[in-house]
Amino acid sequence: MTQRVCLSLTMVVMVNDTWGLTNVSSRENPGNIMNPVYNWSPAIQGIILSSIFYGIVIVQIPIGYLSGIYSIKNMVACGLFLSSVLTLCIPPAAQVGETLVIVCRIVQGMAQGTIATAQHHIWVRWAPPLERGRLTSISVSGVMLGPFIVLLVTGLICDLLGWPLVFYIFGVYGCVLCVFWFVLFYDDPKDHPYISIREKEYILSSLAQQDSSSSVTTLPIKAMLQSLPLWAISLCNFALLWTNNFVVTYTPTFINSVLHVDVKENGLLSSLPFLLSYIIGILGGYMGDFLLSRNILSTISVRKLFTILGMFLPVVFNMCMLYLSFNFYSAIIFLILAHSTSSFVLSGVFINVLDIAPRYYGFLRGTTSLIGMIGGILSSTVSGLILNEDPETSWYKIYFLMSSISVITLIFYLIFAKAEIQDWAKEIQDTRL
Q1: Half-sphere exposure in the Cβ direction for 6 (13 Å, CA)
Q2: Mean pLDDT of 285-308
Q3: How far apart are CA 49 and CA 71, in angstroms?
Q4: Beta carbons of 116 and 366 less than 8 angstroms apart
Q5: Burial per residue of 354-389, b for 16 or more beta-carbon CB atoms within 10 angstroms, e otherwise
Q6: Beta bridge partners of 18
């Protein structure tokens, strides 16, 4: 996420003009070696910033299918290494021209899509059912922690060392992480040389009743298309990525245009929702597993409860921000709460596919993520169109549209969601007379 998001922030000092806002420091030092400046139009900037998502979308379904067949260790390692190398290549690519930057970002998106989709399949073999919430929330917490770190340190790095160092630092970090990944990660707990026999037996026995065979050669596509629980998960992913992409893309713009703060304060305020999201996501994972392990709630009740918290609370806080915030601080508080409480879904709909179809988890995770990515791409496009046509009331329209999509999909999920393995996801055993 640091490699993905850092370009959104370095763009401010990489070009003479960003979304119509003059960058004074860039104009004063157009030939600064530490911070070279390029004459990229807003349209070109938009293509550059969105190009990584095209790469992510392309690989979702193919990688989802292949993750059930090939080594997750090798797939994630190759994706992480390629993404890191391409991050290192962004500064020299910018010297060549915007076309090469776009190509680098598209390929980088394909690498990151491989990581994001394949790594979810890890939990098919590693996550006991009563620990899925906390394990998933901890592993996915980097999605929130990455933007938080980038928003905090990128401006400082640009001022002290120059914006190219942002890419070099996060690129090198990714390469180093590849080494640790190769040494520490194993595809299957039974092959891990360092964990105790007791832990191996616990993991394997807890998953013994779950059909998670990795030898998936055929897919029941028709049954999947007719599955209402799967559609409920997919539509929630659409709504969640619609909201998340809006938050990542337009929160700094909203803070700047509505709350009128300077760039340094903007970076701090924009980062706070991600920090709180990180905390809430991990706590939510432990809360969900606690409710399950103590038999306080059933699996489907936990999934629905945390989906309600993660999808409806942001709607409530967004409406409070628009109509009940009476000063700058109250608006910021509602904004932070609206964006951060969405992390509750990590213990809800986010891992629901693993409940209903562990055998096809990789493929279905890729498919539902693809539907979510469509929502993310549409949200930035639609929001931009609304902002362009009606600046006065545009934010109200954007938040109302976003909230309506969340509420409608949440209702559909509450009606049709399931948490038991579906008939079409069970392995059919051949019998011979």
Answers
A1: 27
A2: 92
A3: 31
A4: no
A5: bbbbbbbbbbbbbbbbbbbbebbbebbebbbebbee
A6: 21
